[in-house]
Amino acid sequence: xxxxxxxxxxxxxxxxxxxxxxxxxxVVSMGLxxxxxxxxxxNDGRSPIxxxxxxxxxxxxxxxxxxxxxxxx
Length: 73
Hints:
The chain has 2 helices and 5 strands, in the order E-H-E-E-E-H-E. Strands 4-3-2-1-5 form a 5-stranded antiparallel β-sheet. The longest helix has 9 residues. The two termini are 12 Å apart. By secondary structure, the protein is of the alpha+beta class.
């Protein structure tokens, strides 16, 4: 499942980040490396998805969320 398919208040685990090395590096530097846990704070279907991980709130646009594979924790 990709991050954009998750619902609000669901906990997940980053499984795989698809994309070029620049994109992967950027996602990891934001605090979402593979195997990290997170909580979806907001996913209303239109605006960027808000996730909470490692004491930080992160906004990720929907297109990028479709490239991040996750597992429900």
